[in-house]
Amino acid sequence: MDLINRPRRLRRTDGIRRLNRETRLSPEALIYPIFVDETLSGTRPIESLPGQYHYGLDSVCRAVEECRAHGVKHCILFGLPAEKDSCGSSAWAERGVIQEAVRTVKASDPDFTVITDVCMCEYTNHGHCGILRGQEVDNDETLKHLAKIAVSHAQAGADMVAPSDMMDGHTAVLRRALDEAGFQQTAIMAYSAKYASAFYGPFRAAAGSAPSFGDRKGYQMDPHNRKEALRECALDEAEGADILMVKPALSYLDVIRECADTFTLPLCAYSVSGEYAMIKAAAAAGLVDERRIMCETAVSIFRAGADMLITYYAREIADAIRTGEIG
Ligand code: PBG
To answer: Which helix (H) or strand (E) segment is 208 a member of?
Structure first.
């Protein structure tokens, strides 16, 4: 055999393998979703997401402490309000569930990053992500309300707002509203490429946010489209987003790669509820090794080009990085 042309596979010692890794993971790049229920005191397990909990306002700090114990330093908050109406008014209430949760978390630990989901589906009695005109969501009317929601989150102390509504022009409207209200420092993580996905099922069960009629295909993206994701990202970049997002993650690794290669803004991937629930279910049935599947999927998302990851496994992935299973 010609020794000079022998292919190198770099399968050597563990140390050399680690040194040669092309993808590096860090607990700093993990964001943990926290569900806060205004009507709850204490915690309640979420049936559709085994291992996850709803937190009452009196116990949201417990979720933060658990994150910190695992080395996770960033969260994204989702709210379950006590009251819903047709225009989702509890979403921008000064003493609304998210506004209170942000104040509570920030008072307990100012250095813990708090991102807030800006959307209306958890707050409207019809479950759509905006204001309805007839059976359709009225894009421009919804934008006015989203701006109020974002400003109220910033007022409560959120570090970053994450509009997940998918209305056209939302990033520009939020940026202007935040700036005018004096929140130039509040960042925007735009859910740029958010697909109309069946993977959101367990989240909607957990957040009580399933649409009462129709679906979200009018405002979320068609899974057949890749170039459209690039157009959405380009718009969000031009409108002033600080971070772009692709969601879900696993079925859209090609989109993550393409967005990472095309844009210079940091890119977040959201490994959504269905991705987590599928691993949990397969593991509970004894079909897969949960820990290794969790690790491998997390690595694949970062390898595809994500700079950060929202995941219900954030705490366990941080542990796996620390033990050296990945990273
Ligand atoms: C709100 C929102 C959804 C998710 C995040 N923000 C649900 C949806 O669009 O129906 C899904 C997250 C997940 O599945 O983990 N619009």
So the answer is: none
